[in-house]
Amino acid sequence: MLLLILILAPFIGSAVAAFLPANARNSEAWLAGLVGVIGLAITLSMLPSISDGEVIRFTAEWLPGQDLNFILRMDGLAWLFSVLILGIFLLVVLYARYYMSPKDPVPRFFAFLLAFMGAMLGIVLSGNLIQLVMFWELTSLVSFLLIGYWHHRADARRGARMAFTVTATGGLCLLAGVLVVGHIVGSYNLDVVLNSGNIIRNHPLYLTALVLIALGALTKSAQFPFHFWLPHAMAAPTPVSAFLHSATMVKAGIFLLMRLWPVLAGTPEWAWIIGGAGICTMLIGAFIAIFQHDLKGLLAYSTISHLGLITALLGIGTPLAMVAAIFHTVNHATFKASLFMAVGIIDHECGTRDMRKLRGLYRPMPYTATLAIVASAAMAGVPLLNGFISKEMFFAEALQVGSDSNWWMSLVAIAMGIFGVTYSLRFIYVFFGPTATDLPSTPHEPPRWMRFPVEFLVLCCLVVGIIPALTIGPLLHNAVEAVLGAQTPTYSLAVWHGLNTPLLMSFIALIGGVALYFLLRTRFGLTQRNRIPLFHRFNGKQVYESTMLELMTLSARLEKLLGTRRLQPQILLMMLAGMCAALAVSWILPHGWDLVAPQAVNIPFAAMWVVGCACALAAAWQAKYHRLAALMLVGGTGIVVSMTFLWLSAPDLALTQLMVETVTTVLILLGLRWLPPRILNRETEAKVNRLARTRRTRDFIVAVVAGTGMAALSYLVMLHPPGSKIGDFFLERALSEGGGSNVVNVLLVDFRGFDTFGELAVLSIVALTVYALLRRFRPAPESIPLPAQQVNSIDPATRQTPAQQANSGYLMVPSVYLRLLLPIFGVVAAYFFMRGHNLPGGGFVAGLILSVAFIVQYMLAGTAWVEANLRLQPHRWISAGLVLTAATGIGAWLLGFPFLTSHTAHVDLPVFGDVHVPTAFLFDLGVFFVVFGSTMLILIALAHQSVRSHRVPTGAPVQAAPGKEIH
Amino acid sequence: MEIVIAIAIGVLFGSGVWLVLRPRTFQVITGLLLLSYAVNLFIFIMGRLSINLPPLTLEKGPIDPALYADPVPQALVLTAIVIGFATTALYLVVLLASRGMTGTDHVEGREPEL
User: Fold this and answer.
1) Are A780 and A864 in a shared domain?
2) What 3-state DSSP class applies to B56?
3) Closest by Cα among A168, A225, A166, A179 to A205
4) Nearest-by-CA chain B residue for A692
5) Looking at domain B2-50+68-102, does it have CATH number 1.20.120?
6) Pick from A613, A627, A747: CB nearest B11
7) Domain limits of chain B?
8) Which site among A452, A494, A746, A927 is 20 to 30 Å from A14 CA-CA?
């Protein structure tokens, strides 16, 4: 449970931090500090159990069926990393309080920092590989936001993007690798995986898994050849660099390699891939670091080099190398974080980080200078500091690798040591000499508490360096045991092991480094040199940029080749694809020619369809120039369809189709007003170019083929015997279990109620979308004036409002008649609704009938009059309906049944006698509300447009729209 | 009977396809209406043709499913009709908005060059 608090606290803190006011630097820092302290206290309280070798777990079910659970798991290694993360987080928070300027939006900063800390803890505490990858990607994402914190700067944006691209790509590789491991082991549970080392190493897919996981770890830890993102990530604020690039982000890859070390290590492949990458990185990073001019750049490359050292140790693969790796991870985190903070102080107080300008900073800031010098000495591996001990362990391991015959590894190690000393000297050189006078601001000591984190970390370096066995010893032992288990070697942490080869190597490195530094300065103009020897051509960034560029051009070309923004080719392709799919499906279906005899053709039915087909064809022919005619013809087809439903035993469909037909016609009539006039011009029509004619011929062929295919398919289907129907199930149970004899309605509101519920949601969303789209609707300019029919000097009706026409004008008779019909419509709707459960009718039909009743009022008397006399508020109908249907469903929950279980109650009413009221009835009422509300909302929203557009700007002449005579 | 329905579906579908391939928005909306008729009928006939057998199980007692039309395609088509209305409305509004913004009723948003 404590583990859960540990992991949740940062995320909760992050959410809170995001909502604090923009200038709340202090409260943000207090909040973040509090989260850090809580986390640290929890972690420290677990030390006794961890020291006993216990593994603390927290498991919550996630996908138990897939053996995927949310597992938190704290062992010695996770503990050490958690303390590192939380400790450095606390120091960074304190430091950032002073570093961030009051102008920076701090809520964003602290929110991201907390989230990053949480994600990082998630990685080290994950007891499940998939979960680990998720936190892993979360760190990539949040680090992107943190590096790009000053997003007004181009270098920050670019650095963030590069870091994200590289690490997230690696994360995807890691995911693939983890899936392979899961496939091999059969579980993602870390405990299971850690016990399956031999199975994994002997599996044919081992190399695949290793390469993929290595790609993930190496990209994250900025290993060669993926190291180039780290220097560019230095565009981040310095507290971010101190946190991400010393203790956390880049250590995630190292952590992963340590975590999976018992499973993956110990093979030649492991040694070559991990060790090789580590050695290259360590040398290249150290070498390039010497030639940097930016202090942070130097630290970035030295970080790369030290990460390479750790990776190389892991690649060596002996248990003692693992001890050294873990130890150096901790040491590097302490001295590198303090160095980053020291650089931040220099940058903050001097206004530049350029080593070519900075000189003699010892005098204005003696404390900072001393701290930075001690820390960089630790980085260089000077005795009595922590860096010395772990580096000496590395030298000892390097000697072991080549045994007596092969000295390559030892030479590489010494070279790396020499470079390390040289760049450390380069770093501390800024403190010596005469004080620079041309700096952007006058250097001075930082505020007391801004320096405290550096002091604390440097103290750690010293204490660990002098008495390692008493301080870090037990904690290191816990971590080592967690990784190595029974393989834990005996080792002693001490400054003095007597005169031996590693000590000699250390001294060679120290002396060689100093010599190299002075050689480079005097002979090669190190301080002003712009090009890095040997490596200036070798530019990972260039490769990255050109790869990205290639990808962009490739995708643009692909998009051009395969995509189009034009609707017509898309529809054509869709139709062709649909036809091909239909053909393919009918090809693979079993061809049992066991056909039933067709029923005799009924002459009136056939005659009806002659009309229906004629209407459809005529509509297709006329839709371009005679819209009104085409609309009427389509309506004719709709009526024939409706009659067909009635003929073929589907009375509910017939009713619904008829009502929808009415409403659709009104809808499109409302829209016609806003379309541009289109007059048949025989001359242009005759001149239509060949291209258009070819297109028409092509479309005609497509249409004929599609129609013929559809007809053939339908005919074949109908001649096949139906086989077993699921419909029988519903027919048998509709009355006995659904309580209604209209099976279609019972299906809709009871058996398949959940479908209907979703459909109502769709309907409501569409209605609201239509409403929202029309709120900003701007009609085309030529549609704004009144149509020709309404501007007529002879007809007196044109000078009347619609309401006047209906109340006293020429529409008086129909208006009286239709107003009389309104309540009758209401009764009819109620009738169809009430009987719906047993006879044709129901919520859908009733809703449509009622909306038609209101629409005719609008059509006759105009929007203004109807709304002055009626308050409909369709939004409320929609919401009432949705609430009612949802409540009916949830009601079943309250009684312990699944969602939407229906129940039939028998009520004894005085006049009606025994009435049974199923809950499906309430559901149907909801359907009725939603259908009515949505239909009304859509139609009224459209109808309102003509009211709005009549507000012609004053002074504009009211004139007839041209070309309306065509109707 | 089957042949009449089959031809009807074919004609409606063919006219619909022709219309949705046309360049003017109103032609497309008409085509969609015709297509939805054809598709609704096609789904409907999956329950085969039955005359005078509406799925209303009015009498008490055990039920012989052979005496009733298949209710499942009917229920599917019923919801399809209502959703069809909603999508038509949505398309109409998009059509009007596109017309207002681009000044043309061509589906590409601009007039083709002649």
Assistant:
1) yes
2) strand
3) A179
4) B114
5) no
6) A613
7) 2-50+68-102
8) A452
pTM of the model: 0.69
CA distance A222 to A231: 10
Q: How far apart are CA A492 and CA A499, in angstroms?
A: 15
Q: Is B33 on the interface with A (CB under 8 A)?
A: yes
Query: How far is the first Cα of chain B from the last one, in angstroms, to the nearest whole number?
Result: 47
Say yes or no for a CB contact (<8 Å) between B5 and A714: yes
Of B24, B11, B98, B70, which is closest to residue A653 (Cα–Cα)?
B70
Domain termination residue (choose one: A676, A705, A726): A676
CB contacts of B46 in chain A (<8 Å) are 717
- C-alpha to C-alpha distance for A620 and A641, rounded to whole angstroms: 17
Any A CB within 8 A of B94 CB = yes
Q: Which amino acid is at A768?
A: L
Domain range for A365 is 327-529
Q: Is residue A361 part of a domain?
A: yes
What crossing angle do the helices spanning A295-316 and A319-350 adopt, rounded to 10°?
A: 170
Locate tokens 């020709």: which residue? A788
Residue A881 lies in a domain: yes
pLDDT tens, residue by residue, A753-790:
888 999 999 999 999 999 998 887 777 777 777 777 77
From A298-312, A526-540, A546-560, the region with the lowest mean pLDDT: A526-540
| Residue A225: cis peptide before it, omega within 30 degrees of 0 | yes
Residue pair A512/A264 in contact by the 8 Å Cβ criterion: no
Kindly give the residue spans of alpha helices, DSSP state H, lying in A648-689: 651-672, 682-687
Q: Report CA A370 to chain centroid distance, whole Å.
A: 46
B49–A664 C-beta distance less than 8 A: no
CA distance B74 to chain A (A): 7
Owner of token pair 């028998």: A906
Residue of A314, A146, A312, A153 lying closest to A242 (CA atoms): A146
Length of chain B: 114
Residue of chain B minimizing CA distance to A701: B18
The DSSP code for A839 is: S
Q: How far apart are CA A195 and CA A485, in angstroms?
A: 11
Q: Residue A574: inside a domain, yes or no?
A: no
Residue in A575, A660, A741 closest to B57 by CB: A741
Q: How far is CA A897 from CA A462, A754, A756, in A?
A: 67, 14, 19
